[in-house]
Write a structure and sequence with these properties.
119 residues, alpha+beta, Gtp Cyclohydrolase I Feedback Regulatory Protein, Chain: K, 5-stranded antiparallel β-sheet, 3 helices, 35% helix
Length: 119
């Protein structure tokens, strides 16, 4: 009888600790890293470099820059065309040299609609 009283209490404590560990592991599992990065928004990027009279459009690609040179299109005309296609102006910079070229940086979310669209 004394054996059951002493061991019974230890067994109950052991089961309680084991159950607590199982519940803790179940609660933390979604937060643990499994080697797969979390899925979030995927962006695509483009830049327009040039001046008011002449500009160069560049789409960022895994291989570098895919350029598209509009025939004599102004910087703002190309920017307006990108805006109509869902591109958002993210930043702008101006060069310090004598030409004073501007660079406009654009981004937009990748989606099924954008992938089907020709740039």
């Amino acid at each position: 009888m004394q054996f059951m009283q002493r061991c019974g209490k230890r067994i109950r404590v052991g089961f309680a600790v084991a159950a607590g560990l199982v519940l803790l592991a179940a609660a933390l599992k979604p937060q643990m890293s499994n080697g797969v990065p979390p899925v979030g928004p995927v962006w695509e990027y483009a830049t327009i470099t040039g001046s008011d009279a002449n500009s160069r459009l560049c789409y960022a690609d895994t291989g570098g820059c895919r350029t598209d040179t509009p025939n004599g299109a102004s910087l703002m005309a190309v920017a307006a065309k990108l805006g109509e296609k869902g591109w958002e102006l993210a930043a702008a910079a101006e060069s310090n040299d004598a030409r004073r070229d501007r660079t406009l940086y654009f981004k937009r979310l990748k989606s099924v609609i954008n992938r089907q669209e020709s740039r």
